[in-house]
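Entry, Tuesday afternoon. Goal for today is a structural model of the target with zinc ion bound, before we commit to ordering more compound. Inputs were pasted exactly as handed over by J.K., no edits. I checked the ligand SMILES twice against the vendor sheet because last time a stereocentre got dropped in transcription.
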Amino acid sequence: MDFSSISAAISSLQAAWTVATNAIDRRDAALLSEVKANMMQQLLEVSTAALELQTKAVHFQELAAGNSEKYSKLNEEFMEYKKRVEDCSRYELVTLASGSHVYVSPVADSGMKFPTYFCAACMSESKKTILQPFGYRFRCANGHPDILAGKDGLSSRWQ
Ligand SMILES: [Zn+2]
């Protein structure tokens, strides 16, 4: 039963009430009994419908609360991802003498004498992983393949 059905049932109850008051005025016991039974049936239908609507309302409230929680969590994840992407965009992609690519932090920003190198594969996943020297290679702590720096090391820009 929906709202329009409830409205119809309430209208029927009001009509039955009018008939009942007329029956009382005329002291018509048979008509009064019939109207009373009709009103009880209408009240039962309205009560059942109201209970169904209340159950649905509770269900929708629970859904809305769950969706709100999911939205908050997704928004939080998005903001974290956006922050990581913005942070990664500050670094510059450079080509090593070997032809391999790494990201490098601006020396002025890091306050260090030499630039810090970051794994390009990790940066593509919006992760910042400092590359560690390993012979003529750089090694990513996240398990990406070693990056060949070449015997001469970095491109001419960073030598
Ligand atoms: Zn990596």
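The pocket of zinc ion is lined by residues 119, 121-122, 129, 140, 142, 144 (CB under 6 Å).
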